[in-house]
């Protein structure tokens, strides 16, 4: 049986930091409200980087940490909801920037669960024997689809990219179990429209508004708590693991209160949940990749440790992966 290991990680966030006080100059909010309701203190907002620029930087760092060359990469999967173009995909643009001439490349959209979906998709290509090394990227310039006058959403998000290199291995380690799910009937609680119908038959009375994220915060909160709790339980059962076996959980970084409730419901100590949302806010498809890269860099993750990556997001999607490091 072919096993799938993570052999390198990388991340990138823009230099420009926007604090809660900075946002309070734009909308009627406060550092106290944002911090107490979400745990977020600041986020990075792009002033120059495109989605592909951030993805490229994270990818370069992941390839370097994997100790391989771009010629070893056979497939690039990029999870994003904020591509620079309808076509080409961000993955193709990054392939060109990296000069990874030997790889195939495509994007996928599973909103904030995108990194987990991309990792699971990559692992299927490796387990099937089609590819040996796959570059996975989660990236979003979410700031470009925010309504900067809507305080219920604009305070929550930030821009960034996370990446990982997955490799085939004969050693029985790496991905132990994974699960993905979606519930399209709940899409109205978190969505962003694309461009409107435009052709010679369509006449708008007013110029259509710029697409921006719309969210029913409390409904998303309830979905998140339920789906993340259930998904962790499911992946543990699939992997024949218990809560005690888990060293760290890298959850989608949306709201500290969501993670607090999940930890309580799952009987897993909150200290096991790696968190960086205080510094980056919710970076959508990128959040799990950035958090994983930071966790690796702490040096606290040792060979043989069990970690869980778990996400939820628009769709509504959710998913988790259990990994032996
Ligand atoms: O990747 C998935 C992304 N989305 C999420 O994860 C969102 C999940 N939901 C949440 O995190 C929370 O629901 C929020 C942080 C979005 C909101 O927290 P909440 O405790 O559910 O607040 P709420 O929506 O019930 O609003 C409470 C009050 C309202 O005022 P009134 O009606 O009580 O007078 C809101 O208008 O807070 C007001 N409010 C704000 N006040 C100051 C909403 N946003 C803000 C704000 N600053 N930024």
Could you explain how this protein is built, in words?
The chain is α/β, with parallel strands linked by helices and 325 residues long. The chain has two domains: 3-172, Thiolase/Chalcone synthase (Peroxisomal Thiolase, Chain A, domain 1); 176-324, Peroxisomal Thiolase, Chain A, domain 1 (3-Layer(aba) Sandwich), CATH 3.40.47.10. Helix content is 32%, strand content 26%. It contains ten helices and 14 strands. Strand 4 (75-79), helix 4 and strand 5 (104-108) form a beta-alpha-beta unit. The protein starts with a strand and ends with a strand. The mean pLDDT is 97. Oxa(dethia)-CoA binds next to helix 2, helix 6 and helix 7.
Secondary structure elements and pairings:
Blueprint: E1 3-12, E2 17-19, H1 20-24, H2 31-38, E3 42-44, H3 51-66, E4 75-79, H4 90-98, E5 104-108, H5 114-127, E6 133-140, H6 151-154, E7 160-169, E8 174-182, E9 190-192, E10 213-215, H7 217-238, E11 246-251, H8 256-266, E12 273-274, H9 277-280, H10 287-298, E13 306-313, E14 317-324
Parallel strand pairs: 4-5, 4-6, 11-12, 11-13
Antiparallel strand pairs: 1-7, 2-3, 6-7, 8-14, 9-10, 13-14
Helix pairs in contact: 3-4, 7-8
This protein binds oxa(dethia)-CoA (UT7).
Structural features:
single chain; 325 residues; alpha/beta; Peroxisomal Thiolase, Chain A, domain 1; 2 domains; 5-stranded mixed β-sheet; 14 strands; globular; binds oxa(dethia)-CoA
In helices, the fraction of residues equals 25-40%
Radius of gyration: 19 Å
Return the domain count. 2
Question: How much of the polypeptide forms β-strand, as a percent range?
Answer: 25-35%
Name the CATH superfamily assignment of the largest domain.
Thiolase/Chalcone synthase
Query: Which fold name is given in CATH as the topology of the largest domain?
Result: Peroxisomal Thiolase, Chain A, domain 1
The total of beta strands comes to 14
């Amino acid at each position: 049986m072919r096993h799938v290991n993570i052999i390198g990680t990388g991340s990138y966030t823009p230099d420009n930091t926007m604090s809660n006080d900075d946002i309070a100059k734009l909308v009627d909010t406060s550092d106290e409200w944002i911090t107490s309701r979400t745990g977020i203190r600041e986020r990075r907002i792009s002033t120059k980087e495109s989605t592909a620029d951030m993805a490229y930087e994270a990818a370069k760092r992941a390839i370097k940490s994997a100790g391989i060359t771009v010629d070893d990469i056979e497939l690039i999967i990029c999870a994003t909801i904020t591509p620079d173009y309808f076509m080409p995909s961000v993955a193709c643009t990054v392939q060109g920037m990296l000069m990874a001439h030997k790889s195939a490349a495509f994007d996928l959209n599973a909103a904030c669960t995108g990194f987990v979906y991309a990792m699971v998709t990559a692992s299927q290509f490796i387990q099937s024997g089609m590819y040996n090394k796959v570059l996975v990227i989660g990236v979003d310039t979410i700031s470009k689809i925010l309504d900067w006058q809507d305080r219920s959403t604009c305070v929550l998000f930030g821009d960034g990219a996370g990446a990982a290199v997955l490799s085939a291995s004969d050693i029985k380690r790496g991905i132990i179990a994974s699960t993905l799910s979606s519930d399209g009937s709940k899409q109205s609680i978190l969505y962003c429209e694309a461009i409107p119908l435009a052709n010679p038959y369509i006449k708008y009375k007013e110029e259509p508004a710029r697409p921006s994220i719309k969210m029913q915060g409390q409904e998303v909160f309830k979905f998140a708590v339920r789906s993340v709790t259930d998904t962790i339980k499911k992946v543990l059962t699939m992997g024949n693991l218990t809560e005690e076996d888990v060293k760290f959980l890298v959850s989608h970084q949306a709201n500290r209160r969501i993670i607090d409730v999940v930890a309580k419901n799952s009987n897993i100590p909150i200290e096991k949940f790696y968190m960086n949302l205080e510094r980056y806010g919710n970076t959508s498809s990128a959040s799990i990749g950035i958090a994983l890269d930071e966790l690796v860099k702490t040096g606290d993750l040792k060979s043989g440790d069990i970690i869980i990556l778990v996400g939820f997001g628009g769709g509504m999607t959710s998913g988790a992966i259990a990994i032996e490091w």
